[in-house]
Design brief:
Structural class: mainly alpha
Order of helices and strands: HHHHH
Helix content: over 70%
Number of strands: 0
Radius of gyration: 17 Å
CATH class: Mainly Alpha
Strand content: under 5%
CATH topology: Ferritin
Number of domains: 1
Number of helices: 5
Largest sheet: none
C-alpha cells in the first residue's frame, strides 16, 4: 500500500508543525517556570510531550503506508509570553491554527480519495476539539481571576495537577 504524493507532502508539513508546537510549548514552559508559575510550566511541558506524540503518529503513519518521512527545519519559537492569561490566549490561538491545518490536511485527503488518511485524521479532529476546549477553559478561568494573584496561584496549582 502506498501513500499519495500530495498527501505525503502535506503530512510531512504537519509533522513539522507538530514538532514546532512541541518547541513552542517547551518555550512557554521555560518562560512560565522562570516567572514562578511551576503549575502552568508543568501544564505546557505535558502539552509539549503530547505534541511530540502527535508528530510521531503522523511519522509512523507515513512509514506504514510506504511513504517517505522528510523532516524539515523547525522554526525557533518566541521566548516571551507575557502574563499567564496572555500565554493561554496564545495557546488557544495556536491550537485554533493547528485545527485549521488538520482540516486542510483532511481536505487534501478527501480530494485525493485517500480513505486511510481520512480515517486516521478523525482521531486528530477529535483531539483538536479537546485541545481547544482545554485551552479555552483556562483562558476563561484566568479572565475570571483577573488581577487576583491568589486566584492566579490557585489556577497555577490546578494546572500543575493535570494528568
Amino acid at each position: 500500500m502506498y501513500i499519495n504524493q500530495l498527501v505525503q507532502d502535506a503530512i510531512n508539513e504537519q509533522i513539522n508543525k507538530e514538532f514546532y508546537s512541541a518547541y513552542l510549548y517547551l518555550a512557554m514552559s521555560a518562560y512560565l517556570e522562570a516567572q514562578g508559575y511551576s503549575g502552568f510550566a508543568s501544564w505546557t511541558r505535558k502539552q509539549a510531550k503530547e505534541e511530540t506524540e502527535h508528530a510521531m503518529k503522523f511519522f509512523d503513519f507515513v512509514n506504514e503506508r510506504g511513504g517517505n518521512v522528510l523532516l524539515q527545519v523547525i522554526d525557533k519559537p518566541t521566548q516571551e509570553f507575557g502574563t499567564p492569561l496572555q500565554t493561554f490566549e496564545e495557546i488557544l490561538k495556536h491550537e485554533q491554527k493547528v485545527t485549521s491545518s488538520i482540516n486542510a490536511l483532511y481536505e487534501i485527503a478527501l480530494e485525493q480519495r485517500d480513505y486511510a488518511t481520512q480515517v486516521m485524521l478523525h482521531w486528530f479532529i477529535d483531539e483538536q476539539v479537546e485541545e481547544e476546549a482545554n485551552a479555552g477553559q483556562m483562558v476563561d478561568k484566568l479572565k475570571i481571576a483577573g488581577d487576583s494573584i491568589g486566584a492566579i496561584l490557585q489556577l497555577d496549582r490546578e494546572a500543575g495537577s493535570r494528568d
